Amino acid sequence: MDEVQTIEAAVLSFYRGGSEQQKETHKWLQQVQNSPQAWSFCWELMQLNKSSEIQFFGAITLNSKLRSDWAEVPKEAHHELKQKLLETIVLFGNGPKIVLNRLCISLGLFIVHMLRHPTVIEEVTNMFLHEQLGSLSKVTQIEILMAVLEGIPEEVKNIRTQIPRTVVCEELNRNAEFVMQTVVTYLNEKLSRSAVEPHDMNGLINAAKCTGTWVAHGNVHLNDREGMIQTLLKAIHYCYWKEPKDDGCLMPEENELAETALKSLANIISSYATQNAKYSFTVINYMKLFLDVLVPILDAEYKENNDNENLALMIYALFISTLECFSSAIFAGIVTDSEEVSKVYTRTVDMLIKCTDKPGTYPVDESCSTYAMEFWYMLQEEVLSMDSGEHKKRCLEAIKPVYAHVVKVLVRKSQLPTESSLHKWNDDDLEAFRCYRQDIGDTLLSCHDVLNDLMLDVLSEALDESIMYLSYDPQSTESWTLLEATIHAFCSIAQKIEYTEHQQIVKLLKVLNEIPYEKYSDKLFGMALETVGAYSEWIGDNPKYLPSAITLLVKGLNSTKASQATLGLKDLTSECQKEVIPYALPLLDACRTALQEGHLKNAEMIRLMYTVGNILSVISYENIILYLDAMVSPCFEELQVHVQNNDRTEPTKARVVLRLEMISKLFSSLNIRKPTEGDMDKGLVVGVGPHKLPFPAGGTPAPGAPVQPILLILEKTMGLLKSLCTLWIHDETVIDTLCKALQQALTNLMDDIKPLLTEMCCLVLSILNTNCVVSAADIAGNFILMFYKDQDCRQLMVQLFTAIMDYNFNQMELNVGKLSRIADLIETFYAFNTRISKKIPICYSEVQIDCMKLVDYATKCMMLPETGPMKKSVAFITMFVKESTNHPVMMNVILAQGENIVRSTFLCIGGTALRTQVEIFADIFLALNFRYPAEFIQWMKLLEVPNFPTAYVSATDKEQFMRKIIKERVNKRLVQDHVRKFAALCRNIVEYENK
């Protein structure tokens, strides 16, 4: 008795105590639940004189024991357990509901365990149907029965039972029709009356749920489900139309029954999705039933802010689900001789057009229109995937008018909220609408696939309409939304528009330059700027429209939409680099002005430097020098001031990072030797004006050729960068940003960096010896890969290589036993060594480093829980093994470490690594087996050790696995399959062949 009181006190403490106390109490209560004594005390807790918290804990304890510990119940106690369960259900038959629901689940669990008895479901069902549970009313008994039956198939998925799963499934299939007949009979009986009593609603809801959970069982053909489908539709029809509602809103119970019936209908349809062709006629029949019963409800709810929006959503979801499962059957109606199939298709399309065009603005006035987007993709995919021929042509012609109409609907629906309506919107609404607009953009791409050039005609008409709407009330400041939505539609399909000089695009660009943006919301201007950027590639093919595009984007630099302007300029100068030459200097002046005025945000300034680099790359060399001095010098001058002041405050750090990111972005795009499209094949020269560069694009400069501008910048500023590095050496953010800037310079300069190689390497070395950030290791790796074989640079590269190895070894030694703390560093380190192993493995022989330690740490790192270090370590070991046979130093390491590698690999497969990632270890087995076949056989004998890698896998299984792995030296897929199955055995997980 004292034990029960202790448990009760703990339960109350858990529900009413603080978070720390709850944590400890929860842990203790779990231990109590798992104890064999729980079978006894759970009943004592479920007494009417206890609090609801204690009663509920007793009920979930019984649940837990039935689900996981059935083996603790002796066979002779089964009948007594059943009786106790039924008595307790009677006790709580009238509530609390939370306890009764758990008891219903428990009875379902008991039935699953007893399925060896072929009549157990019928016996329990008849007991409830014939009112054999004492004082409970017939209504309550039916409600409980339906809840119990509904849960049985679900519990089978989670229960540990002594009955083989195949037997359980056979019994469920054998009992399915009895259960279904019972449920449908009950539903029909209740729904056939003129009015359903309120107290019957819970029973009807549970019965409707039951049809959805049992439908996957019984091996019944879809055409035999018509009676059940009609019954569920009858339930929905009854709930919606049974009587006029004063406020138009369904009562909660009616709404729940209707929605439950819709979910079950969707379950029924999806259960037969894999048998598409077999049930074409049947699905058309069912779709007609859905249209007849459900579309009138949708028509009644076709308004803004309707009170049954969720019901409408679920109806649309049922239609979409049916189309997903049986699209070919329904889409056969596009062009067919069957009037019935044609009508179903036509009615479906009409219904989903109305769904797309639901009155109101998503998501504040309506929530349905987003559901139809998927249909428009499905329909065009169905038609476009047809084999070319007359049938496809007819189908395409048939759906074009539909898609033309849908485009206009989508433009209208994508209108932004006006300022006066924003009070109705919260942040979640705005984010939902942003995603909705993205979905509309994607759907417009599908529409273009159907309409092709006709799409531009439709949008051009929409553009005319939106301009006309704007002119109706010139004084209105809120009539811009339709024009903005039309421009957004043009922007969405830009990627589909080919180089032809389409007059519709010409008209669009003209309109964009003529709109008086100052009269309207800046969102209209922002969309115009984004659209110009989106058409950069088209403008590159039609350069006479470049001036108007530049004019608009430059205007945008001085507006609140500078972000879109900088993005547009970045795209335009990338796609039209040669074409922008005549406008380069005024454009550079505009960029310089914008940068100097200080109104741009950090991201905009950084992005604008990419544009500056693009333009500088194609102007004359004298102008490059002039503009570099004017536009880049301020960055370095500010950095110089911070260094001289020895200023390391947070505001200064932010400015330093900004300036370095601006320089980095300039370095990524400024390259006077950068080949343009086609130049690599043609050997054309790069540059303009009197100082064209006298060497082929991408080639080695001729003697006396102009120095790359980036090199000039670095030569002048290397001292400053060193000072900056010294000042901020312990700040990872600053050092990482600096290294990324140098990496961008290296990427563009390549061999041209040689004059500064020693200084840059010394700078990187100072970083590696103090703060080996990821980007420092990356740039050092690139230096080594590029210049290691150059004898003039060899000594410097050896120093870099040694510094990287020493720093990382030191960090791993400091963190032995807690390597996860430096997971990012480890990931970078072994990614670097994988590149070295693959490209210049001779390093490991020529440089004095401890390769034994390198591989030993890799075996430890591949056992880390973090995915990055694990994968990079495995990749390194694999590559090191593959290359080792050509290099004695590496080979000796593998011969010495081979057994350790195999042991660590087995431990990872056995449980250290996530089961979803074990296949990666097949790479190590393949590499070892291919390069060291004799030794690999010996190393694999580790499996002969008892209980290794786990106690779950038998000696026979290990022997079979060993033979399979040793046999395969090439077939990666097969070895991965063997490893996956062996991992399942090691973890005591049954892996079914059909999964």
Automatic annotation (TrEMBL):
Annotated transmembrane regions: none
Q: Which domain of life is it from?
A: Eukaryota
Q: Which Gene3D superfamilies does the protein's record reference?
A: Leucine-rich Repeat Variant
UniProt-recorded Gene Ontology molecular function terms = small GTPase binding
Concerning InterPro entries, the annotation shows: ARM-like, ARM-type_fold, Exportin-1/Importin-b-like, Importin-beta_N, Importin_beta-like_NTR, Importin_rep_1, Importin_rep_3
Name one matching Pfam family.
IBN_N
**May I have one GO cellular component term?**
nucleus
Q: Which GO terms describe its biological process?
A: protein import into nucleus
Alphabetically sorted, this entry's keywords are:
Nucleus, Repeat, Transport
Principal location: nucleus
Cell compartment(s), UniProt: Nucleus
**Family of the protein in this entry:** Belongs to the importin beta family.
Task: Give the multimer and partner information.
Answer: Interacts with UBC9, RAN, RBM8A, eIF-1A and PAX6.
Recorded protein name is Importin-13
* Source organism of the structure: Anopheles gambiae (African malaria mosquito)
